[in-house]
Fold this protein.
Amino acid sequence: MKSASTLSSAFLQSAGQALPEPLLALRANRASALTDLLLPTRKTENWKYSAKHLKLTDEMASSLPLNASAGAEADIQGYTVVLVNGVVRPEASNYPALEGLSIQRFSDLNGDDAELAADLLGKSISDQPAKHGSINLSLLNAARFEDGLLIQLQPGTVLNQPLLVIHHTSASHSGSAFPCILVAAGSNSQLTLVEDYVSSGESPVMVNTATEFSLGDGANITSVRLNTEGQNVQHMGTTGVRQQRNSRFASHSVGFGGTLRRHDLHVRLEGEGAECKLNGVVVTQGTQHYDNHTTIEHIAAHCNSEESYRNIAADKSHAIFNGRIHIHQDAQKSNANMSNKNLLLTNGAEIDTKPELEIYADDVKCAHGATIGQLDNESIFYLVSRGLSPRDAKVLLTMAFINELVAQIPVEQVRDTANTGLNQFFDQAFQEV
Amino acid sequence: MLSIKNLHASVEGKQILKGINLEIKAGEVHAIMGPNGSGKSTLSQVLAGNETFEVTEGDVTLNGDNLLELPTEARAREGVFLAFQYPVEIPGVSNLQFLRTAVNAMRKHQGKDDMNAAEFMKLAKEVSKQVDLDPAFLKRGVNEGFSGGEKKRNEIMQALLLQPKLAILDETDSGLDIDALKVVSDGVNALRAPDRAILMITHYQRLLDHIVPDYVHVLVDGKIIKSGGRELALELEAKGYGWLGVKDNTTASH
């Protein structure tokens, strides 16, 4: 039952008692900006295909309990931080005390660090005013977060193994969670950050996430995002990236469909010679939904962007890709390449893809391509004529469609989880008749 | 082995096969020749189970079993193998993975255990050498970026791996230079066995210099109009299909 029509009434603010003053001030400031903001509808341009999947109830308006336990986590190796309902659980986390690396929860921040976090959030790029009848739901995160993580890498610091952040939503009853992560990567630092969104419990919940990366000159950051939350979780996530000179940012995301799945990824290439590479794989089935919106802004000259997203939709599910490339006037010698390939496994499935190019510089290379197709009958016949079952043939062909991207995920543990999820997807999508 | 009786087949309402009768016994090699558009490839696709083609009349049995009732994969597991005229390129599916899945599907059907990756790799390397394919091809996508000749050798390699009862070779000689033709022919000759039948479909007789058939049939307009021994192919080469009162825009000789 939805009675609220504005964001501020749909999601109630709690005290945020544990936060340091600069973050509380920022939160209050963002909260006031929400007051008149309406919930997205199908007339909201960037929510055209997703608004109908947003199903809020009065029970979801309150924040989920801040003291929920992490429960039994899988056996996790390496550097790990666990957040439950958006709140850091130090007792479930395990990360190194390395020189040059600082991992702090918001409630522990003081002095300069608190100012830095407020500054990063305040300038967060996904926090820009909405344009063209669009709405930016990371605003909501900034107005409602209860805790978060500030990860700082001093110049030259290199983390030799991935840092895994588990965002656990404990949905024993209805409510909302607002996890927030800030990464400030000093010049020439290196980090692979894995964000794994998982859930337990069956009650309808909303998860509204914000992840912000700030890359100094020559920093090299890889972001891996995996979403295997339950079907009771509605997920709206935003990732913002700002890149200075010669920095490298790579993003690998694997998304399994859900009631509402939304990820907005916004990269700003602000310093010359910066490069980003964005890969995404989405599979949906049943009546699931997944909506990826990406924006790459070429602001400085001589920057490269390379983007490849692939969607597979089965049954009556719906996958959406909206890829925007904005080349600013001074961004001469930009090189941008965007590809989106889509595979429809049934007649009832729907895929919408929209490349958007805005180019204001005259000496640039900008290529984009989008395709939507079905499994090729000739290929199926070829494989089946060698004794493969039609199911195995379809699995091989479907896997081939995305394997190139899955294989590029630089963390084995994530690849394994992704492959397990994909196999479950295939079992459902290609039931042997 | 294979018995085809009065086989009629159509595609999109157009009748292509108009009453084919053919008996092939174990150990025999048969060649079907004919001008373009006579229905040669349709026959091979129908035997393999391509559902694009509709069988409107007739029977096909393999060792007494009704082949037409079986889905494509079951025919393959019963030992029907079609070497495609135009093997499909499937980027992203590794040749090795595909071949191992195929071999293990066959083994499962025969009540044998799966071959593990190491055992299969060893076997696949041996067989790839037999058709002069660099084992590096195993790691590439199925037929991905292969030349015409490499695709044909890949087909014969698959036949050698799967050890079918009935091997149907559809224009396996087309697009091959003389050296590749020799390699492919050697592979086919290695397939010849007392318990295996081979059906070769070809436009030209040159393949038959290398793989000598026991019988030759001439297929014209969906029917076999003449059958004979090896000498029939030579006669066709000398005289062309026109000799049989057939119009052909190409010539039967090379």
